[in-house]
Amino acid sequence: MSGRASRFTFLLVSWIEGLAFRASRLVALPAWLFFRFASPKNDQLNYGALLSMTSRFQPAPKPTPEEVRRHQIKWANRVARIANLYSSNNILEVGCGRGIAAHHLQEMGFRVYATDIARFLDFQVQNARLKFSVGDVRCLPYPDNQFDLVFSINSFEHFDPPEIALDEMLRVTRPGGLIYLTFDPLYYSPWGLHASRRLGMPYPQILFAEETIQRFVDEKHDELAPTYSEGANTTRIGPYLNHYSLGQYRALFAKRRASLRLLFYIERISCDGLVMIIRYSELFKARVPSFEDLIVSGIKLLGMKR
User: Which fold has domain 3-305?
Assistant: First the structure.
């Protein structure tokens, strides 16, 4: 199969994936009706309700190092497929975390650079001489037009502000080069607090006030500490998030159409918390920008710099 045909097939499959997610919104129709006709009522649940829910909802288990590695390699292989389809050899990962994905791409023969705000590289990656740099996404330590492909995996929801991060990623990408972003979960979605190992119910960031959740973390600190990733701040419920809504992300990408042509754009749907939306529809109506914010859990896109 020719390169053009391979790219067409890849984009067609991505389009079908996006279509499937759009169709899955039908499952959320009953919850949407409750949300649509609810009267906003900003009465968040109290600490007793939080403790009651934690006894009924099982937190997610902490992944093993091998599970983390497999997950990162899965994404690295997807990036490699894009790189091969578009003949991209010079690659940058922004927000690389432990560097496992970047290292895997390096082993596959790509010229790979990686950056993050702090150095938390996996032991194997440290010994592999990965071209890593500590840097702020608001000022990437690379010259203009250096890379064929810049990607970021599950980090964009942490970048603040993401507009500047995307502009920096575009700056260091050559004209005709690619930007690949996938990030999940978005803040208002069921697991948007990024704390499912500590709070097993969907939407805790909406159901409870920040001080209620912080009280839980303070009182249960020793019990919760083993659920955090290495290097994480165990005095907070989860990592820093930019709290951007779906509408803000859509506007962010729309405003950059002159410099970034989207080859595909997919909004992933999660129906994990529909029962919660129905039960507490008045609370959700008062505290979220839109119903779509509640069910769109993530965004995946591939764009080409004009």
Answer: Rossmann fold (3.40.50)
